[in-house]
């Protein structure tokens, strides 16, 4: 049964969980060399908040990008994809992003507006090639281009090392900015990686699942950069779910300008490349998890760990089935250890599973090591199913485990050696409220 206390305290719980996760976000000294950002509030948002972001590199960049698989694609997605194809992933110096309007399903006028944003911003920073473009906001409304063009001009006049403002400028229903900055040593040179993203709703795998810009001063070939991005996305942005809806605008792009001066990364099997890829993957993973933690109405961050799968495809199918189950998500919201809902989601996932082999645990925390060689349940976990059979359980203790803000669901299929982790959130009354009044 849904707890009345959760209903009454939901708003405050949301604020508390966000403060816990985001109170330390700030600009750091790990900004990639040669990049600057400019922002402005041009008036697209009714709140008057920042809504234009220009990212600029003083040197030409190699670029890799992945776009939404939705058949309905916004004008900026179509334009950016065509530009990357036209210029073979290289020579770019700028990216222009607006929030407060998706420029999706806007026809020829929307395409013209995306082109205007691209050429205006690239001209203002004297870039040789047009800017890539990202937009986010309500679908089906034309952008106020007088405001947008003024905003782009103002952003170009205010270029500096301020990634936090850039993260704020691309927010829509996000409650907090999402910024991650890391560094790694490559051939004796410090290579910096910075990522910003936005997303809180319409979040579901198959790339992309929001807007994200990652910039690095690494010197890396186009093919190696594409390989690093694809790997990183598979285990980050393609491993999260909020509501099962895929947007029309989703884009993830990574820019590398080579200013760090490292020996150029070309061999995707080299130790240097793998270290760089790990840094990008960690950046993307932290950003992806931030999206789930900031999900509309969410009070729980849920790690879903599928173990013992025959192959990665099966593990992904099972994890995704659990993550998208409304019954599982509402049970976690109500702090009800209803393991039957999880087992049902495993069963209808489409994966070839054997019910008599399945074991399952719930945990407080991420559940990373639960169920691995343990004779008894650790204090932060509880087993509910062993080899297909229910285990004795303490409902009061189970509810206490699920009262934590971080919750783990661990499922061992006992069919192989492949593991896969996915992250999702609970489904709450506040999510319904947020999305039933989104346009108002």
TrEMBL record:
Q: Does the keyword Lyase apply?
A: no
EC number, UniProt record:
2.3.1.35, 2.3.1.1
Compartment(s) where it occurs, according to its Swiss-Prot or TrEMBL record: Cytoplasm; Mitochondrion matrix
Reactions accelerated catalytically: L-glutamate + acetyl-CoA = N-acetyl-L-glutamate + CoA + H(+); N(2)-acetyl-L-ornithine + L-glutamate = N-acetyl-L-glutamate + L-ornithine
Q: Which keywords annotate this record?
A: Acyltransferase, Amino-acid biosynthesis, Arginine biosynthesis, Autocatalytic cleavage, Mitochondrion, Multifunctional enzyme, Transferase
Pfam families cross-referenced by the UniProt entry: ArgJ (PF01960)
The active site consists of 209 (nucleophile)
Q: What does this protein do?
A: Catalyzes two activities which are involved in the cyclic version of arginine biosynthesis: the synthesis of N-acetylglutamate from glutamate and acetyl-CoA as the acetyl donor, and of ornithine by transacetylation between N(2)-acetylornithine and glutamate. Catalyzes two activities which are involved in the cyclic version of arginine biosynthesis: the synthesis of acetylglutamate from glutamate and acetyl-CoA, and of ornithine by transacetylation between acetylornithine and glutamate.
Task: Indicate what this protein is called per its UniProt record.
Answer: Arginine biosynthesis bifunctional protein ArgJ, mitochondrial
Please name the source species.
Dictyostelium purpureum (Slime mold)
Give the organism's phylogenetic lineage: Eukaryota, Amoebozoa, Evosea, Eumycetozoa, Dictyostelia
